[in-house]
Design brief:
Elements: H1 2-24, H2 27-43, H3 45-75, H4 91-94, H5 96-113, H6 115-119, E1 127-128, E2 130-132, E3 152-158, E4 164-171, E5 176-184, E6 188-191, E7 194-197, E8 202-203, H7 205-212, H8 228-256, H9 264-292
Antiparallel strand pairs: 1-8, 2-3, 3-4, 4-5, 6-7
The chain binds protoporphyrin IX containing FE.
Amino acid sequence: MAITGLFLCLFLVGHLLGNLQLIFKVGEEGRRAFNEYAYFMSHNIVIKIMSYATYLSILFHAIDGIMLAVQNKKARPVGYAYNKPGANSSTASRNMAVLGSAIFIFIAIHMSNFWWKMKYSSEPMPLHLMTKEITVPVGQNPLTGEAVNNTIEVKYALTTHGDYTTLVEKNLTSNEEREYAKIKDGTKIIQADTDVELGEGYKDLHSLTVAFFGQDRTDEGVPANKYAGLAVALYALAMLVLSFHLWHGFASAFQSLGINHARYTPAIRIFGKVFSIVVPLLFAIIPIILFINK
Ligand code: HEM
């Protein structure tokens, strides 16, 4: 439990740093940065392995925790006649199983809110239309290099199914646009003297997330969540629970691993307390700010 718990603390730090982009980068730049980040996270092999390790850790940590709580109960089926638990243990430490179960339920709800929609939902995921203008030397077809008269604008646009990108030819004098070609991933486009490789494009996780917490993204295909206030309250409450769980759990993990040292243990305890306040607080601030700035 100690190893999976500490691994999950590491996950929390990484997840927090990624999510903070939601409030520190705004506008189209923020949207692009977050979607590029989400794309990287779901395509990088090392991160993918870490993700599976995270899912397994959550399951192992939860199941083991429940088994431990049941064992403890069995070890003392009849309660003490005189019991004043506050004398030598904190409320958090005596309620780790209840706090942990609440966090587990939160994670399940939370993953259905974003992760499920991103990966498995049959509803089409909104896509982030990337436009990137490439200026091909006038008179050159960007795919073949043949002579044409227009400047070409390339849209990194994906269809709902995401298996091809559309190249739009724009006549800059008449402002007319026409679909020029459908390009499979990986097609090389001749851009002046360099080649541009088309990527798969980005699922619009940013719009999905900010709309969930109350921002209107109707233009991107995701209207604001009607129950955003409730969602923000639930997330904030879950972060309070997480804080209590970490308050005891962080230092306790080191204790379980047998790390008990006159000098380091007090430092670990202090670090654990700071961690258990700062990390959940920053997590909670994200939905609150998104909600206020809607
Ligand atoms: C309150 C602020 C939070 C926001 C805005 C947020 C947002 C997100 C988003 C957008 C995803 C989908 C990413 C993807 O599938 O690539 C995600 C995944 C996930 N979140 Fe959160 N999250 C928050 C807090 C938390 C907390 C506190 C936990 C754990 C206690 C957590 C656990 C997870 C897990 C386990 C995943 C799946 C990760 C993976 O596939 O690797 N999240 N979150």
